[in-house]
Each structure stands twice: as structure tokens, then as C-alpha cells.
């Protein structure tokens, strides 16, 4: 993905913006500083939230939440986190239910500390991207029809302007991270930053590495892997698996960039498969319980058998977050929803019309380009996720390594945390790492917070995951 | 498997023994009644343990433990439970760490109640089989060289004599259940009982059904499935999986009944695979932590990070049991070890020389025969087990159903317990059920006690697993 000529005017704009960074006074902007979030426990780090306008003319603005590191924020890197979807909220997802400093309280009225927050090791930036997601918006409705290219372009502008607003972080080591469809967002954004750096005269983004969890990278490999996972984890029958292998040519589908038109036969099987899986299993974590639907909850409560906890995880956290984020005083404290959007905040957008075709873009060449420029790439995978499962990601990484003619530096082996196997890992060359996280969902830091933090800390350090505890 | 002529004398002996049952006085034998086990909480049901001599001449005797049902023992069926191995203890495994009424306390000096014991719904009989396992023994050392046929034959004699000793249970509904290599033991024993019944003049075993968890049924299918499981659950690399598929012809190996001689190439890969998996993962439950080795435990204890609990399961229970069973007063209370064996009690036998060739016996024809005689067959599978994984069992059941020309009665779907998906199930015809247990290990009742009890209760009832909660 080279910089296309039509983007030259964007790069000029970005360079113009960044030119000013060096002469800015350091410190975050007072107007974005969060005083205190409703029901928030006391903490010693600063938080900021607000909007960055990425297109004045269209009235297009992206909402961000920034949590400084718990200690020594001035010596720690900046990590951007993006959730996927496409169309899901990084502030709702990453920041408040996965790796940020707070989780919603179970009454939905306040917050509790996340003891494994990634702001122990990094300053954390979360962005609702593209416009139309969460509290990000555009005054030009047609902006909500978008895709990978415009999303990456807007994020480049966002980061340029954000670093201008936070000049003390502008030259800090920068890491890009995220999950799921951020398998598209993050590499494409990294590519934009690196291309920008190539033509930049003064300011350059100090990009050091990218790390993506359960990422969509290659739709044909990832889709086939998804059904293989469902079968090998017992969610679908032998009969269906055999029928899928016979009738569903995912490869062919992707090559034609025709993501809707699959054969009638295949379509029928995939519908039957949904019946087999049923409605009460979390496909993002096949062994985690689900938050009980209210009717069942009522009945179970009578029998004193209801629980919101499964394997130590609060499985109702998404409802609690939904409630908390729609409290007016929460939105006020976050400087969010400044335009009074005509809909409630929701985790994934109902207004976005994101290009379905872009799902089919092969991300491996983008990753190849990034690695060839000396940037560290980690692909990690919660091993309980059937949606973008580990087998697809592992195969994608192997294919990438083969393409790059990288040899195995760390042969596939277990990695450890607190005396237990925390997952498996393999490293190709000096820059490409694959790692699973044992017992983790699609949302790795949500279901395995301690292992996820350890993985992220190791990623930042540039070391390999520990061999033994 | 028909009754072979050379076994006629055994059947005569058995019939002779059973002839007396009807005229016996009811009630368990006073000499086998357990007064109270050391450190045992108070309970209202009776327990018995002791020896049944299955061959007077050889001095061959099998040790059993029998726990009556918690309530209404006189109206509940009898279930025999056998652990596998071959060579592992049903009393140590099934009775005291899986589905029996007690678990060892974490100090190893006493017992605690298993709140999900299967004696809520059945009278439970556990037998150390064959001689050489646990406290079962023979005074004729050559008896320790044995295999499937002699094991089943001895168990037939055992059951005949046991029912004579416990006459009030002799006509009760009988269910055979177990796990792992009991995939060989149970069907072969059922076959023996049914063949006995065919020629019996008076007493007949009242066999109603068999149920086996993570059973070895067809070594070629089960072995291939094991490596597929390891791969799809992230424990081994893509590279190894590809190499295994290329070099390891498990099918060929089994057909030749040549279980040792695999190709050098395949052997090398399987060794490498062990490296990849590492030493600190429980292959019988790939997401459960392991009991920390003492050196690591010491270090972790200093950092206050040691835990014996993983996902609510005491992962050190096997050590606690080992300690408890070797206490002299425990052995005395159990009427065990009456010959002062020259070795400690251990979960799996070190003296047995069990035929490796018998692993290769195809059990599907035996199951077919049993079903054709109207006996209910359930195959269940803890879905976290890589040793005899669900995919192999599921395929075996499908192959069996196809062979029997049974149609699908219950299409593959989730089953429920306490408002959550407890696994998936499918039923063929009226008698053949397959079910997974979600989040369960090879030892299903150990890691998912509530789901396991619900499954067993449903099996006994003759119903299908619940569709919704």
C-alpha cells in the first residue's frame, strides 16, 4: 500500500499541523481534563477526553479517551487501542471493559478499578473510529458510508492533531494495538504513519510496534478457521462440518470479493449451524457463561442459582457499561455527546454503513510492508474465540513468515505467567510474534486480564514471552 | 462377541453362585460396613468396602467401595463405575475425586462432602479392576499379565458374587458407567452380562444402560482426533500438525495391530510435539491450571501468588488423595490392603502388565451388539480433554449410528443446566446418545460436577438432555 497521489493534500495538511508541535507548551489541554467520573474510585493519574475535529468542513469529529500511566507517565510510551466491528467503540470496549483503568460497577452507577489495567505500563489512548461510532460523529451524513481507506486517513489526521494537543507525548515511543476488525484498522494506520514519515520534513511518528488480538487478516483463512473451531470445540455436528467442507468454498468467495453470494447449499448449512450452536452461547468465548436473559434470570433468582460471574469474569459487564455510558452526568464528565446525538450510546454503531467489501482485503501484504520497515508485529489470540479463532491467525502468521522468508527464532512453546501456562508462542525472525492466551476470549484483556497485561508488558519491552516461571 | 465355548465353565460357576441369591437375607454384609472414614463429615447413608475373591485357587481378589444413595437407597438403581488406564483405580478416581460422596480435604487428613455426588440419584459401586490395580491383588503374580478378555471375565464373576453378598440389590436396575479406557471395560462387561443372561435359567442381570465418558472406542479415530484437538486448541504448531498429517498414518498402525512400530519420521514429530506442549499443562484438561510443582510453589508462596484452585476446581486433589489413601487408619477403615501389599497405594498401577494390543480392539461392534439388545448407550465427552477428545467420540458415535442405520432423533443442539449451556447433544434412534460437557476435563465429574450429575440423572431417567432452562 503506497501513498496514493490523491492523498498528497492530506499529508500536506498533516505536516502543517505537526510543524507546530515542537514549539507548543507541554501538558494536556485543560478543557479535555476529566475532573472525576461519576462513582469513580480515587486514582493518581490524569484522564482526558474530548473531540478532535478531523474535517472542519464536513463537521467530522472523533471522540477520544486518554488515560495517563499510573506512575511515571512521562517516561512511558503511548499506546493507541482500537476496537473493531467495524463500527464498535474503543472507549466502551477497550477502555471501560477490557484494558483501561476502570470497569463499570455491577449496579451500573459507578466504576471500580481494573487491577490489571494496561496503564500500569503505558499511557493509553482510545478513539471512537470512524465517525458514527460511539460518540464520534459527522455533520455530513454521507460520511457514515465509509471503509478502510477513509478510516485510516481520518485516524492519521486525528493522531496528527492529537499529538499537537498533547505535545509532551509527540516524540514518545508509539505503539498501535487493538483487536478483531482492528486487524484491518491497525496495519492500515501503521502503513499511513510510515508513509507519512517517509515524506515528512520535521516531525515523524515514533512508531515502534503493533500488536493485534484475534485480528481479521485474511477473510478466507479466518472464515474457514471459524467453522473448524466450532466443530473442534463441540458446538456443531460432524454432519454439518462435513457438509461445510463440501459445500462452502470460502476461498472462492473471497477471491471474487463477493462476500454475500454464497451457494444456496452452503447458506442452508450455515443457517442450520446457527441452530446447533443455539442462542445462549457466547461465540466470542465458547466456555464463558452468558449474562442471563432477564426472564431466565428471574426464575433462577427464585431458585438462588443466578450468577453474573463465570470463571471469575463478570459476564454482565456489557449491560452495566451500556447503562453507565447513557447516564447524562457520565457523558458530561467525559465531555462526550456535545452535539446531543439523536440516539443512545451503543457499543456498536447503528448508523454506520461500512463497506462490506473491505472485509475481503488481504492484510498480510500490509503487515509484510510494516515488518520490512523494521516495525515489531505481534499477533495474539484468545484461544476460546470462535469468531476469529487462533488457528486462522496462526496460519496467517506462518504464511506471512514464509512470504518474508523469516526463519523460526522461537519454536512453538508454552509461555508462562504466575507459574502456569498462559498460552503458546512462536517467533519468526526478530520482529514477528504469534501468541495465544489460554482461557481468553475474543476480548483477551476482558477474560484474562493478568495474562493480557503480562503479554502487553512483554510486547512493549521488545523481549520474548517468558519460557518458564 | 459371542460367548466362547471355553468360557462355559465360568458361566456355570456364575450361575451356581447366583442361584443362591433369591434365598439370601437382605442387607449389606456387616463385615464390609464402614464404620466411619477418618476425618469424614457425618452422613445418613451407609458405605461398604472390602474384597470379593474372584478366583480362590489363584488367590485373586478385587477391592470394591459401595456408597448407598443419600436417600431412598432401596428404590434407586445400582450404578457401577470403572476408571480406565488400563490400570487405574476406580476407588481413587471415581469414588474419591470425581462422583463419589467425598473429596479429600486439602490437608489430605480428612474428607469433605461432594455436593454433586452421584449417590443423590443412585447407589454407587466402584471396583479396582483388574487385580493389580489399587488394593486389588492376586497371589499368583502371572495374573498381573492380563488384558480386556480376562478383565471382563473377572468382573462378571465379581458382579455375580457381589450381588450375592448384597442380595437386596440383585434385581435392581443396573447401569454400567465409567471413563477413558472404561470405553473398553464397560461395553465388554455389558456384553458378558448379556451373554450370561441369554443362558441363565433363573437370575439375570437387570442391565438397563451404559454410559461412558471420553472413552477409548476406536484407536485410529481417537488418536488422530487427539492431535487435531491439540492443534485446534493451540497446544501445537501449524508446522507440526501438517507434518503429523503427512507422516503419521494412525489408521495403518491400528489395522496392523502394531501399536509400537510407527515410522521414524512420525515418531520424531510426536516427540517434538511433546516439547511444544511443555510439561506444565494438563493434557486431560487443557485450560485447567496444574498443581504447582513444589519448587515453583515455594517461590510463588513467597510472592503470595500460589493457588490450588483453577476455575473453581482443586487442581491438587490427586496429591491430597494419594496422601489420604496411604494413611494406615484410612486403609483400616476401608478394610483395604488386607494382604499388606509391598507397595504404596497409587492411582495407576505399577505392577500391572496390561496387553498393549488390546488398545487396538474396535469397540464399535460391541456397542452395536449391546444396542441391538435394547440397552441404552450414552457416550459423553468433557470438551477440554485432548487425550480422548470429543471429536473422536462424536465421529465414533456417528459411525456407529450409520452402521446401525439409526436416524437422528435429536439433531445436534445445546443442552442446558442452571440457565447456561452445559454442552451439546445429539440422539440417534431411541437408544444412542452423544453429549459433550462444556468446560469439562477427561474426568468430567471432577471438573464440572453439577453438569455431570445433571447428565447422569438424565441418563438414568431415560429422557433426553434438556432443551432449554
TrEMBL record, chains A, B:
Q: Where in the cell is it found?
A: Secreted
Q: Which SUPFAM superfamilies match?
A: alpha/beta-Hydrolases
User: Which of the seven top EC classes does this enzyme belong to?
Assistant: hydrolase
Please identify the protein, giving its name as recorded.
Answer: Carboxypeptidase
Query: GO annotations under biological process?
Result: proteolysis
Annotated organism of origin: Picea sitchensis (Sitka spruce)
Sorted UniProt keywords: Carboxypeptidase, Disulfide bond, Glycoprotein, Hydrolase, Protease, Secreted, Signal
For the keyword Transmembrane helix, the answer is no
Amino acid at each position: 500500500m503506497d501513498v496514493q497521489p490523491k492523498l498528497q493534500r492530506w499529508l500536506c495538511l498533516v505536516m502543517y499541523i505537526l510543524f507546530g508541535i515542537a514549539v507548543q507548551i507541554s501538558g494536556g489541554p485543560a478543557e479535555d481534563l476529566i475532573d472525576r467520573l461519576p462513582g469513580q474510585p480515587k486514582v493518581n493519574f490524569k484522564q482526558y477526553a474530548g473531540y478532535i475535529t478531523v474535517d472542519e468542513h464536513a463537521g467530522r469529529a472523533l471522540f477520544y479517551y486518554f488515560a495517563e500511566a499510573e506512575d511515571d507517565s512521562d517516561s512511558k510510551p503511548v499506546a493507541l487501542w482500537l476496537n473493531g466491528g467495524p463500527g464498535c467503540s474503543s472507549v466502551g470496549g477497550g477502555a471501560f471493559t477490557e484494558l483501561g483503568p476502570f470497569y463499570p460497577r455491577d449496579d451500573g452507577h459507578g466504576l471500580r478499578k481494573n487491577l490489571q489495567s494496561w496503564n500500569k505500563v503505558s499511557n493509553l489512548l482510545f478513539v471512537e473510529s470512524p465517525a458514527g461510532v460511539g460518540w464520534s460523529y459527522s455533520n455530513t451524513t454521507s460520511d457514515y458510508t465509509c471503509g478502510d481507506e477513509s478510516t485510516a486517513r481520518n485516524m492519521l489526521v486525528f493522531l496528527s492533531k492529537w499529538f499537537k494537543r498533547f505535545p509532551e507525548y509527540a516524540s514518545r515511543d508509539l505503539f498501535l494495538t487493538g483487536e478483531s476488525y482492528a486487524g484491518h484498522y491497525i496495519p492500515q494506520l501503521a502503513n499511513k504513519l510510515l508513509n507519512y514519515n517517509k515524506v515528512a520534513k520535521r516531525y515523524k511518528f515514533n512508531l515502534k510496534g503493533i500488536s493485534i488480538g484475534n485480528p481479521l487478516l485474511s477473510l478466507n483463512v479466518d472464515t474457514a478457521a471459524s467453522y473448524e473451531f466450532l466443530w473442534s470445540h463441540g458446538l456443531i455436528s460432524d454432519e454439518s462440518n462435513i457438509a461445510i467442507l463440501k459445500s462452502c468454498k470460502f476461498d472462492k468467495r473471497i477471491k471474487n470479493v463477493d462476500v454475500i453470494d454464497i451457494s444456496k447449499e452452503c447458506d442452508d448449512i450455515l443457517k442450520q449451524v446457527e441452530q446447533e450452536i443455539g442462542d445462549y452461547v457466547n461465540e466470542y468465548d465458547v466456555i464463558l457463561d452468558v449474562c442471563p436473559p432477564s426472564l431466565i434470570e428471574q426464575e433462577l433468582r427464585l431458585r438462588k442459582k443466578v450468577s453474573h460471574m463465570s470463571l471469575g469474569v463478570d459476564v454482565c459487564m456489557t449491560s452495566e457499561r451500556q447503562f453507565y455510558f447513557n447516564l447524562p452526568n457520565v457523558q458530561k464528565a467525559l465531555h462526550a455527546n456535545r452535539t446531543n446525538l439523536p440516539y443512545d450510546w451503543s457499543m456498536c454503531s447503528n448508523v454506520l454503513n461500512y463497506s462490506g467489501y473491505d472485509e475481503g482485503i488481504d492484510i498480510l501484504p500490509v503487515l509484510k510492508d510494516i515488518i520490512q520497515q523494521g516495525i515489531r508485529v505481534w499477533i495474539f489470540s484468545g484461544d476460546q474465540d470462535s469468531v476469529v479463532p487462533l488457528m486462522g491467525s496462526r496460519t496467517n502468521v506462518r504464511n506471512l513468515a514464509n512470504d518474508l522468508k523469516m526463519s523460526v527464532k522461537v519454536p512453538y512453546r508454552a509461555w508462562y505467567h504466575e507459574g502456569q501456562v498462559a498460552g503458546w508462542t512462536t517467533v519468526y525472525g526478530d520482529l514477528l510474534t504469534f501468541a495465544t492466551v489460554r482461557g481468553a476470549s475474543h476480548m483477551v484483556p476482558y477474560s484474562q486480564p493478568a495474562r493480557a497485561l503480562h503479554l502487553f508488558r512483554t510486547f512493549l519491552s521488545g523481549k520474548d514471552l517468558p519460557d518458564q516461571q
